Automatic annotation (TrEMBL):
It comes from the Bacteria. PANTHER family: INNER MEMBRANE PROTEIN YHJD, UPF0761 MEMBRANE PROTEIN YIHY. InterPro entries: Virul_fac_BrkB. The chain crosses the membrane at residues 38-60, 97-120, 141-166, 186-205, 217-239, 251-273. Keywords: Cell membrane, Membrane, Transmembrane, Transmembrane helix. It comes from Actinomadura darangshiensis. This is YihY/virulence factor BrkB family protein.
Amino acid sequence: MGSASATPGRTAAPARGVLKRTAGEFKKDNVTAWAAALTYYSVLSIFPAILVVVSLVGLAGQSATDDLIDGIGDLAPGSVRDLLISSVRQLQGGGGAGVLAIVGLLAAVWSASGYVGAFMQASNVVYDVPEGRPFWKTIPLRVAVTIVTLVLLSVSAVAVVVTGPLARKVGDGIGAGSQAVTVWNIAKWPVLLLVVAFLFMLLYWAAPNAKRGLRGLAPGALLAIVVWIVASALFALYVGNFASYNKTYGSIAGVIIFLVWLWITNLAILLGAELNAELERGRAIASGMPAGEEPYVEPRDTRAFDEEDRRETGWQDAREEDDGKRGVSGPSAPQEAPGVRRGDPGARH
């Protein structure tokens, strides 16, 4: 009985430690400032992203775009909803054709990828690792992540639109009637949350210059979603009942509310990244790495490291490592665990 009762305590203590370290690193890495920077890139990226999504959803017909607008109304706070719906309607009425339309979509994808590029920088700060990937690797990666994100969002929007009438037909066929539609209207939100969780995990995996497995990133994605939902609800409650944005900012109150909401969203996403980083640090310490050692993850690439990066992290260029193995290298080097630096200990922030 004694050992059984001690197990929850032993489990809770590490969990509290991880959360405490996550909160500490959240402050130490100046995440609020990074969230502000990401908000700037969000503004530059979100409207090109909406253009791509509206164009793809529009392939399913006018009613699909109208249902997309209804979905935005269900998700976003009041003033944010009005701004987004207005943008969607303008894009809906300004569609092009032919080569110019394709060029416009490509330009929109490139603009939207700016957010992923900025998130890469923030993620490297979170993981305490310099950017070692050359530009010819980071640029295609950020564009690929952007395309996957936009396609998944578009497919999700179309799926929600198309499967609503489909659920009604299935319900009529099996005699369930409107109950099938009611069930789907409830079930579609968890499905969309799973899609968002996967997108967060994809971003957490691709952004940092750190070797990570995709499955180990689920805790951060879950935390980000929960914090985002709760924070958005509280912010909507605050704006609707206590704030005086209209008196303070007048006609641009909606824009200010939208910017604050984007900042809150980016705070939630970065908080999830911090949790994943601290879980990774805990695994590194459990495998024998000293607690103060950084970086605690193995870089994906070191080719773009400068001399200061190599000196502070202890990681060499892959070609230098191969030369060292063929020549004179430290006898303990092959036994080092992945992620352990070969230089002197020291923090990098």
